[in-house]
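ok, trying the design again with the full structure, not the truncated one.
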């Protein structure tokens, strides 16, 4: 607990002072230099200005070699708060910026700016601050900093740092204690410049605002005390106090303790105890800088010692070599055993290694001791552990312990003994009987420790940089690895996505292919189903209509066979129709060219009419067949390629239906004819009643009527032609034909009747045979395939027409030829049908022959008359011709029976022949 402000003030008012431990009372030797005023030395030839003249970091040089600088021009800029600039002490040229030995016990070099003065000592532009109290304190502090002011008492602490403190300051102490022997610079400054010191104190008071201002002056400087007292007399709060002379009372801590009784803690600052202390020289510099605008470029240096002839205080420019000041003080080296200049006092000063070392801001004294004036450094003897040093230490240290460890370079142990609390007062050394330069050991130890600390700091910084670099490299490595991993993952993902896309595309293609295949399969399945359905329908139809064919291999074979048979039947029908037309035309021409008799003419007319009707019918059938073929181009035009297309099958079905209808119709007609043929010849009314039913045989009746009309028209035309020929002298077929019905009705004779019966029998047999064949074929193939039905129908019609045309004797060959052609291409079914028809015809012929034996005489005339009537009725009634033919066929004779048997035999032979040819064709 340190004294309070009031107690301190009371103590100060009473003139009592506190004290500090230790201390010595050496001979001050101040009288050597304090009697003369401060002198202004001459300009040295070279000024060497160190960039650092204070505690803290160096400033940054802002001039170059060769620059001409003015007095007070700034040479370096502050690089940190703990640095202050330096200024050119005079005008001149910068001749060097290089390291130079500086004022330090270690003798190390520092960067210095060498200026060669021009001798003019020309000031630069100055910026004094007259009303500093109105200026912002920070600007005032900045001005102090820019003036390059640092502590001039010895430590060299930057002044602007002290003035910018934020701690409350109770006591602002102006240190006028110059306790070290030989030094009188402050004494002379206080004596000569007390007022300016007071001005500086005013500025500091303005900046710091302390509660009390104490001006401490050692009691061995009464002139200085008086001067300051006078200077501060107008300031009641300025207390100018005299302090007992005791060395090292001028030390900061010691003076604070003397004045306030407060002890600055270890590693602490005076501000920690509410005290702020400035040297009188610093205060003078502040006033000079603020009030005159002059930077700190000079200071008062005491050059004393018995080795100089004129010890004095010099207002020396900073950078002035020591040698120059020694010269100014008339240094006499002869008074020295060896050249020795001590910078500072005999207690705290250090011996300079070079006389060219420049004066700096902390240089207050140059002591040039003569022989035996000071203790010889080479007289060091071993420590006797007298502890006199410890008793004299103002810092209450154990100097001998520190000395031992420092000498042994055990700096850590020296630090354990609070080496850095040593103020290097030299009191210990002063009292050491062994004349051990203890302060030198302490300073060396401190320097080594600082170097080690600096190196340790540098090593620590290098380690931190290394760790930072290692961490950065590791981080970058991790980042690269992460980046590569991400890139790899991205590539893998891309490849995977690509593969998936490829698989998806492949699946899509497969799906499309499968879809197409499926569509094709569906189409094929639909076609197959349609074919199967058609086949089933055909099978059902075949099963319904033809159970006997259930043993056939398959429906496809039946379809193919049916299509082939239909194509063949159509081709044969066409061929038969052409042959029929040719035969009819040929027979008609022959009849016209060779009219034998009126009966022949009449028969020829009838035959021609029948032939023309049949030819026309055949032509119509051929047209129908061609139309059907045109509707079925694939089956008609390409019979060989009739595979089993749906259209062909459909057409075949339609043709089969038509064939079945025709077969049914033909069967009904056959039954009607058979029933009429089995009946004996009766009256006309009965025969008319036995005619087929017009409703069931409407198609046949229509065809017959049409044929009859056509035949009548042809016969009429031929009759007209024959009449014209007879009128010309030559018999004409048309005339015979035209007159034939009349002659037949009016002049029948026995011969002609026999011939007519014979012909009628042949016609009846042929017609019966043809009808039988037709009926048989319709019955047999009524339910078969349409193509087969068409073929059979045409084949049946062809023989029928051929047989019908065979009524004419001249047409027998054509009949046989047509029948042969038709039968020659018959299938086994046709053969079977033909055989059946032949059998039926044979039976009918036999039956007719049996019946004809009894009725022949009576029925011949009737037949002839009916036949002639049928010819006449054919012109007026469509059913007359058919009825006539039926009635004619129902009146056989023996010759007819014989012919019928012959025809049956011929048909049978043809059937066999057709069967043989069919087998060859199938092979
Ligand atoms: S005064 Fe000198 S001799 Fe005595 S103890 Fe200290 S160092 Fe050793
Ligand atoms: S040890 Fe340091 S403080 Fe103590 S007397 Fe020696 S020099 Fe002075």
């Amino acid at each position: 607990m340190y004294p309070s402000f009031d107690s301190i003030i009371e103590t100060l008012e009473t003139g009592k002072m506190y004290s500090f431990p230790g201390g010595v009372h050496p001979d001050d030797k101040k009288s050597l230099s304090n009697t003369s005023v401060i002198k202004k030395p001459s300009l040295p030839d070279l000024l060497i200005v160190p960039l650092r003249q204070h505690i803290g970091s160096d400033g940054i040089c802002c001039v170059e070699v060769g620059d001409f600088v003015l007095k007070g021009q700034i040479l370096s800029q502050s690089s940190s708060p703990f640095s202050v600039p330096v200024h050119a002490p005079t005008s001149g040229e910068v001749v060097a910026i290089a390291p130079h030995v500086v004022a330090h016990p270690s003798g190390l070099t520092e960067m210095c700016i060498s200026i060669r003065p021009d001798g003019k000592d020309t000031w630069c532009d100055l910026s004094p601050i007259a009303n500093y109290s109105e200026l912002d304190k920070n600007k005032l502090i900045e001005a102090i900093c820019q003036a390059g002011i640092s502590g001039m008492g010895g430590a060299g602490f930057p002044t602007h740092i002290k003035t910018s403190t934020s701690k409350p300051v109770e006591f602002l102490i102006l240190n006028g204690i110059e306790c070290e022997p030989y030094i009188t610079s402050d004494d002379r400054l206080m004596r000569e410049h007390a007022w300016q010191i007071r001005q500086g104190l005013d500025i500091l008071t303005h900046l710091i605002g302390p509660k009390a201002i104490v001006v401490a002056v050692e009691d061995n400087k009464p002139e200085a005390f008086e001067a300051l007292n006078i200077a501060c007399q107008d300031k009641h709060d300025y207390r100018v106090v005299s302090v007992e002379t005791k060395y090292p009372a001028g030390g900061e801590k010691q003076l604070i303790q003397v004045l306030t009784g407060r002890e600055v803690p270890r590693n602490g600052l005076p501000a920690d105890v509410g005290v702020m202390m400035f040297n009188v020289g610093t205060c003078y510099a502040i006033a000079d800088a603020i009030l005159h605008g002059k930077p700190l470029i000079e200071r008062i240096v005491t050059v004393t010692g018995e080795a100089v002839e004129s010890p004095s205080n010099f207002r020396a420019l900073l950078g002035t070599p020591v040698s120059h000041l020694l010269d100014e003080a008339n240094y006499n080296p002869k008074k020295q055993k060896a050249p020795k200049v001590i910078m500072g006092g005999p207690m705290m000063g250090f011996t300079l290694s070079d006389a060219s070392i420049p004066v700096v801001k902390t240089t207050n004294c140059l002591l040039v001791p003569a022989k035996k004036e000071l203790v010889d450094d080479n007289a060091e003897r071993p420590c006797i552990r007298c502890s006199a040093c410890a008793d004299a230490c103002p810092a209450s240290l154990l100097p001998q312990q520190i000395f031992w460890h420092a000498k042994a370079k055990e700096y850590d142990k020296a630090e354990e003994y609070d080496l850095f609390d040593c103020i290097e007062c030299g009191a210990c050394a002063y009292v050491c009987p062994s004349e051990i330069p203890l302060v030198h050991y302490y300073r060396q130890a401190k320097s080594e420790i600082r170097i080690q600390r600096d190196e340790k700091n540098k090593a620590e910084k290098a380690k931190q940089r290394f760790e930072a670099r290692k961490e950065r490299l590791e981080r970058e490595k991790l980042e690269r690895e992460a980046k590569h991993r991400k890139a790899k993952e991205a590539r893998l993902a891309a490849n995977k996505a690509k593969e998936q896309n490829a698989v998806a595309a492949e699946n899509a293609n497969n799906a499309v292919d499968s879809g197409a295949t499926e569509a094709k399969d569906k189409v094929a399945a639909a076609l197959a189903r349609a074919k199967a359905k058609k086949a089933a329908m055909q099978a059902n139809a075949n099963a319904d209509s033809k159970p006997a064919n259930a043993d056939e291999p398959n429906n496809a074979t039946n379809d193919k066979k049916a299509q082939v048979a239909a194509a063949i039947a159509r081709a044969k029908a066409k061929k038969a129709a052409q042959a029929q037309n040719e035969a009819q035309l040929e027979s008609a021409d022959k009849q016209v060219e060779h009219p034998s008799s009126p009966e022949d003419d009449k028969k020829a007319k009838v035959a021609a009419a029948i032939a023309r009707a049949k030819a026309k019918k055949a032509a119509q059938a051929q047209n129908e067949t061609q139309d059907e073929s045109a509707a079925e181009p694939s089956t008609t035009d390409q019979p060989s390629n009739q595979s089993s297309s749906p259209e062909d099958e459909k057409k075949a079905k339609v043709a089969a239906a038509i064939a079945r209808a025709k077969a049914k119709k033909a069967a009904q007609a056959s039954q009607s004819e058979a029933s009429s043929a089995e009946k004996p010849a009766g009256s006309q009314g009965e025969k008319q009643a036995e005619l087929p039913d017009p409703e069931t045989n409407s198609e046949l009746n229509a065809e017959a009527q049409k044929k009859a009309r056509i035949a009548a028209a042809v016969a009429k035309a031929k009759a007209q032609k024959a009449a014209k020929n007879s009128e010309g002298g030559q018999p004409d077929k048309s005339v015979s034909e035209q007159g034939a019905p009349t002659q037949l009705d009016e002049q029948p004779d026995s011969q002609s009747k026999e011939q007519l019966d014979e012909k009628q029998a042949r016609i009846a047999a042929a017609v019966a045979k043809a009808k039988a064949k037709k009926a048989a074929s319709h019955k047999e193939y009524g339910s078969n395939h349409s193509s087969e039905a068409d073929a059979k129908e045409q084949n049946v019609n062809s023989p029928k027409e051929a047989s019908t045309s065979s009524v004419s004797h001249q047409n027998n060959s054509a009949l046989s030829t047509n029948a042969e052609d038709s039968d020659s291409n018959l299938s086994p079914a046709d053969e079977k049908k033909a055989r059946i028809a032949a059998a039926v015809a044979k039976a009918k012929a036999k039956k007719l022959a049996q019946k004809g034996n009894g009725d022949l005489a009576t029925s011949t005339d009737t037949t002839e008359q009916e036949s002639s009537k049928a010819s006449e009725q054919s012109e007026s009634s469509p059913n007359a011709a058919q009825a006539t033919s039926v009635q004619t066929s129902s009146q056989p004779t023996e010759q007819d029976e014989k012919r019928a048997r012959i025809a049956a035999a011929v048909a049978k032979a043809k059937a066999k022949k057709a069967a043989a040819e069919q087998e060859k064709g199938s092979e």
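Keeping the full-length input from now on. The mean pLDDT is 73.
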